Structures are given as structure tokens and as C-alpha cells.
């Protein structure tokens, strides 16, 4: 069911240099019900590789998107930080681009409409594209027009024929999921009105490498982008990188603005970040090989710490039944012998089991009620928010363990 790719999916050069083998992994968002335990759970190799020609980081084993995204349990609206980030971003676009009743904003992977809702409220026409049927339905019920489709050149051509080209195309955390980046970027170029802009947000590969965020690697994330690797991809389709900024969200992301070549002034931030990446050695294998060694060190440190706590009869749970948690638990070999349960705020996940390791998922309030001595924080990217929400647990003596960028304990708030 998976296809092994040995040449770069952007530039076609090969063979790819394999950097890190995370073993056989289940699909990271495929939470199980108790009934599912009677069936075999599919697992696939998860390996990270880099292209020596354009330096694009990519996984080698591609799972068809239909398997991955037709039903999806990640609802963006469950995170306060995401909602705040969305409202601020929309206010910024309105200000910078003079959008109005004659404009069209299209968002790719619009999820439950948490971002486009802000445009609807401002009277700016918008359209969401969301392949997960259950989530598209939630968006529609909230008044956000949503197409239940995968994005690519084909869909872009259909929309243009229907008179629906865009002044602003948004894509948050979707670009890295599209298995054919040339088809995706060609689709952007097709859909864009001549003076329009494309704004994409995605995890930044330099943050992944430098902060050892190996758990953001899973089958849905086919690519891990640096600006160095993106420039030739956009230029191949007649687009120019206009502006770039770094965001703290999801462990470090880029917000990239692109436009048709020659339509807008290129901001100095683009050349600055390209220069910074060159200085770090993004265009050399050494940069990536050091990362792979640090990942192996985290696994060893985490297994050692949790093993010592168990030998002292300490109880340990986890917080955050996220996709990144699945990669970490499966790569580090942590299951019910070590962790009692996973607490999570998302009601859609309660009563289900984590992929591969089958830890039961319970409401976040269970942490304060059952008071394990330690809670391994799998959603460390929302650490500030979660530590504040879990003040009662922390005041009762609960300690959090942060696995990344290095394993450490956050003492209780007593
Ligand atoms: Zn390449």
C-alpha cells in the first residue's frame, strides 16, 4: 500500500540520502476504537531522506492521501492558541491587501473553518477546500462554503473555469502533506489572479533539525521545507518567493508569501533567510547527519529516565494524543507497561486508543483526578498553554516531562 520513492519528488534527482529510520509506524492520526483491536493494524516504514541536489527533506515511503485524510480527528478549533493565531492572521491580511466584497479568498485544507470564519464575519467572499468529509461538514454548518476535495492542478483548473480564481490563497499546514509538490505549486500558480498572493504556513525544517523535533515526522508530512529547497520549486512554476517570516507555532514554522514573477516587490527577508541557511550548512549533508545522531540520543535518554521512574514505582501518564505523540511513542517503544493513559482535551478522541501502542485516551481533567506522579508532554509545542491549564495537577504535585529538544522534568507548582 505504500510506495517507496528513491528520487526527489521536487527536482527528480536521485538517489535520496536516507538520514533517519524511525522504524515501522502506524498511521499517526489513526486512533483506534476497542473494536479495531480485533483487526490487524497496518504499519509502514518511516524513513527521512534528503535530496543532495535541491536539499529537500522528504520521507521515502508515501501512503496514498485517500488512506490518510478521508476521515480525520484533528479539529483545529480545540486549541486556543490556533484560534488566536487565525484571528490575528486574518486581521493582517485584510489590512495588507485591501480585501473587500469583490475579492475571493481560498483556503486549502480549511479544516473546520476556524480561519475562514473570520473572513465570513468581515463580509469577504471565501471558499474552503477540505478533503476530510466529516470536518468539511462541520465547516459548512458554521456558514463556511467548503469543497470536499484534494487540492492540485486539476481542481485549480476547474475553479478557474468556473470563474473562481483567487486574490489570496491560504494554506496552513497542508503544503508538507501534498505528495506531489510540483502538482500542488502548479495548482497555486493556476488559481492565482495576476496580482494575487499565496500565503503558506508550514513547519520549518531548520527548527525541526536544530530543536531535534523528530516527532513531527509522520507519514502525513511528506516534506520538511527549508527556503533553500523551496525556491527552485516555486520558480519552476513561474512564482517568486516575495516574503518570509518565522513563527513560533508548531515548534517553529515559516509563513511564506509567493506571487507571480515580477508582480510584487521581493522583501529583504527572503535573501536574509537564504543567507542564514547557507551559513548553517543547509546545503551540505553534515547538517542533517548531526540531527539523526541527536534523535537517537533523545530516545536513549527518555527510555532511561522513564525506566528509572518505573523502577522507583512512580506512576506515569502522557498528555496530548497527537500525531507527533504517536511517532514518539512508537519510535521510543513506550506503551502500557510504562504509561497508564493519555489525557487530551479533544472530546472526539476520548474512549479511543493511540495508534500502535494502544494507550487509552481520556479527558484532560483526568490528570488532576488520577494524579500520576509524572506526565510525559507529547504536545510540547503547546507547553505554555497546557502547563497553565493543568495548574491544579501541578499544584497537587504533578510533574511534566518534556521530551524535546532534550529530555527534562518541569517540577510541580507546589
Ligand atoms: Zn531535489
Please report which band the strand proportion falls in: under 5%, 5-15%, 15-25%, 25-35%, 35-45% or over 45%.
Answer: 15-25%
- Tell me the number of structural domains: 3
- Architecture of the largest domain in CATH? 3-Layer(aba) Sandwich
Kindly identify the CATH topology of the largest domain. Rossmann fold
- Structural class by helix and strand composition: alpha/beta
Separate helix tally: 14
Rounded to an integer in angstroms, the radius of gyration calculated over CA atoms is 21 Å
Shape: globular
How confident is the prediction overall: mean pLDDT?
Answer: 93
* Percent in helix: 25-40%
- According to CATH, what is the class of the largest domain? Alpha Beta
- Relevant CATH superfamily of the largest domain: Vaccinia Virus protein VP39
C-alpha termini separation: 51 Å
Bound molecules: zinc ion
Number of strands: 19
Provide the spatial order of strands within the biggest beta sheet.
8-7-6-9-10-13-12
Give an overview in words.
With 414 residues, the protein is α/β, with parallel strands linked by helices. The chain folds into 3 domains: 3-62, no CATH class; 69-265, Vaccinia Virus protein VP39 (Rossmann fold), CATH 3.40.50.150; 291-410, NAD(P)-binding Rossmann-like Domain (Rossmann fold, 3-Layer(aba) Sandwich), CATH 3.40.50.720. Helices cover 34% and strands 23% of the residues. The strands form 4 sheets. The protein has a 7-stranded mixed beta sheet with strand order 8-7-6-9-10-13-12. The chain has a 6-stranded mixed beta sheet with strand order 16-15-14-17-18-19. It has a 4-stranded antiparallel beta sheet with strand order 2-3-4-11. A hairpin with a 5-residue loop joins strand 12 and strand 13 (253-260). Residues 8, 10-11, 13, 51, 53-54, 56 line the site of zinc ion. Zinc ion binds at residues 8, 10-11, 13, 51, 53-54, 56.
Amino acid at each position: 500500500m505504500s510506495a517507496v520513492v528513491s528520487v526527489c519528488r521536487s527536482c527528480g534527482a536521485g538517489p535520496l540520502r536516507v538520514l533517519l529510520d524511525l522504524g515501522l509506524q502506524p498511521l499517526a492520526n489513526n486512533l483506534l476504537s476497542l473494536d479495531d483491536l480485533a483487526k490487524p493494524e497496518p504499519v509502514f516504514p518511516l524513513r527521512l531522506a534528503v535530496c543532495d541536489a535541491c536539499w529537500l527533506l522528504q520521507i521515502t515511503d508515501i501512503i496514498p492521501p485517500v488512506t490518510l485524510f478521508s476521515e480525520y480527528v484533528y479539529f483545529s478549533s480545540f486549541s486556543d492558541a490556533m484560534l488566536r493565531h487565525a484571528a490575528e492572521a486574518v486581521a493582517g491580511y485584510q489590512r495588507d491587501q485591501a480585501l473587500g466584497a469583490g475579492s475571493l479568498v481560498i483556503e486549502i485544507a480549511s479544516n473546520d473553518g476556524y480561519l475562514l470564519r473570520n473572513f465570513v464575519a468581515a463580509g469577504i467572499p471565501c471558499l474552503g477546500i477540505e478533503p476530510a468529509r466529516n470536518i468539511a461538514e462541520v465547516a459548512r454548518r458554521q456558514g463556511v462554503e467548503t469543497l470536499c476535495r484534494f487540492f492540485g492542478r486539476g481542481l485549480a483548473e476547474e475553479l478557474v473555469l468556473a470563474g473562481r480564481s483567487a486574490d489570496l490563497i491560504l494554506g496552513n499546514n497542508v503544503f508538507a502533506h501534498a505528495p506531489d509538490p510540483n502538482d500542488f505549486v502548479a495548482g497555486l500558480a493556476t488559481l492565482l489572479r495576476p496580482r494575487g498572493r499565496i500565503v503558506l504556513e508550514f513547519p520549518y525544517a531548520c527548527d525541526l533539525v536544530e530543536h531535534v523535533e523528530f516527532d513531527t515526522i509522520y507519514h502525513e508530512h511528506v516534506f520538511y521545507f527549508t527556503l533553500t529547497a523551496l525556491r527552485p520549486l516555486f520558480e519552476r512554476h513561474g512564482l517568486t518567493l516575495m516574503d518570509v517570516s518565522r513563527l513560533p507555532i508548531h515548534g517553529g514554522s515559516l509563513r511564506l508569501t509567493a506571487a507571480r514573477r515580477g508582480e510584487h516587490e521581493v522583501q529583504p527577508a527572503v535573501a536574509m533567510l537564504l543567507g542564514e541557511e547557507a551559513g548553517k550548512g543547509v546545503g551540505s549533508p553534515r547538517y542533517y547527519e548531526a540531527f539523526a545522531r541527536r534523535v537517537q540520543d533523545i530516545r536513549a535518554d527518555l527510555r532511561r529516565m522513564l525506566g528509572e521512574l518505573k523502577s522507583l514505582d512512580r506512576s506515569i501518564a502522557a498528555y496530548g494524543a497527537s500525531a507527533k505523540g504517536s511517532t514518539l511513542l512508537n519510535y521510543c517503544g513506550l506503551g502500557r507497561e510504562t504509561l497508564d493513559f493519555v489525557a487530551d482535551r479533544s472530546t472526539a478522541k476520548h474512549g479511543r486508543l493511540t495508534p500502535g501502542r494502544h494507550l487509552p485516551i481520556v479527558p484532560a481533567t483526568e490528570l488532576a483526578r488520577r494524579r500520576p506522579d509524572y506526565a510525559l508532554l507529547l504536545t510540547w509545542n503547546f507547553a505554555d498553554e497546557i502547563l497553565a491549564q493543568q495548574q491544579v495537577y501541578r499544584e497537587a504535585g504533578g510533574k511534566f516531562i518534556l521530551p524535546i529538544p532534550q529530555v527534562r522534568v518541569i517540577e510541580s507548582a507546589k
